[in-house]
Amino acid sequence: xxxxxMNSLLALxxxxxxxxxxxxxxxxxxxxLTDQSALLACKTAVKYDPNNVLGNWTTRTNxxxxxxxxxxxxxxxxxxLRLQSMGLAGTIxxxxxxxxxxxxxxxxxxxxxxxxxxxxxxxxxxxxxxxQDNLLEGEIPTSIQQCQxx
Length: 150
Ligand SMILES: *[C@@H]1O[C@H](CO)[C@@H](O)[C@H](O)[C@H]1NC(C)=O
Ligand SMILES: *[C@@H]1O[C@H](CO)[C@@H](O)[C@H](O)[C@H]1NC(C)=O
Ligand SMILES: *[C@@H]1O[C@H](CO)[C@@H](O)[C@H](O)[C@H]1NC(C)=O
Ligand SMILES: *[C@@H]1O[C@H](CO)[C@@H](O)[C@H](O)[C@H]1NC(C)=O
Ligand SMILES: CC(=O)N[C@H]1CO[C@H](CO)[C@@H](O)[C@@H]1O
Prior knowledge:
This is Leucine-rich repeat-containing N-terminal plant-type domain-containing protein. Keywords: Leucine-rich repeat, Membrane, Repeat, Signal, Transmembrane, Transmembrane helix. It is found in: Membrane. The protein has a single domain (2-146), classed as Ribonuclease Inhibitor (Leucine-rich repeat, LRR (right-handed beta-alpha superhelix)). 28% of the residues lie in helices and 16% in strands. It has helices at residues 2-30, 33-45, and strands spanning 46-48, 69-70, 80-82, 89-90, 104-106, 111-115, 128-130, 135-137. The chain has a four-stranded mixed beta sheet. Strands 2-3-5-7 form a four-stranded mixed beta sheet, with no helix packed on it. 18% of the residues are buried. The structure holds 2-acetamido-2-deoxy-beta-D-glucopyranose (NAG) (5 copies). The site of one 2-acetamido-2-deoxy-beta-D-glucopyranose (NAG) has 7 residues, from α2.
């Protein structure tokens, strides 16, 4: 009797855990936190910010109000990132590939260096990619052809 009770309790526990992790991963999939963490990763990849443009990129405020960040009102996702002529130096984080709603990326006239990350290719909604006047190496990955709206 006791064993049956223990077994069903265990089964219930496993079920609860499974449902819980499912809800957590679903919530994460649809949440704007993905964009927030991608923005923070991009900030980390910037090593020099003479005008402290990214100074207000902190979780104390909604990322929709961060400098250079546009937000869609409905979903609070990021369709545009405009950081041109800010004097920024650093690399372009591979996390940039996580902005699944990004249409416009404008980083022109800064000092971004290094290779252009393959992960850009994941931005299927991209229409504008403006990287001129930086210190980037190599070429834009040919797989960028997958971004058919570009
Ligand atoms: C995420 O979205 C929710 C509801 O749409 C909103 O209340 C919240 O402020 C958003 N969070 C950020 C950091 O934008
Ligand atoms: C962050 O800085 C930008 C540009 O200076 C400004 O437009 C925006 O209101 C600031 N946001 C917050 C939350 O202070
Ligand atoms: C490039 O950015 C610098 C600031 O970092 C600015 O002074 C200069 O006018 C910009 N050049 C162009 C062509 O926008
Ligand atoms: C964002 O991108 C990075 C690097 O490409 C990846 O490791 C990470 O799992 C991604 N995170 C989310 C929440 O999509
Ligand atoms: C498609 C692609 O290039 N994905 C890469 C994104 O960035 C992470 C971290 O650098 C790599 O592990 C992935 O291979």
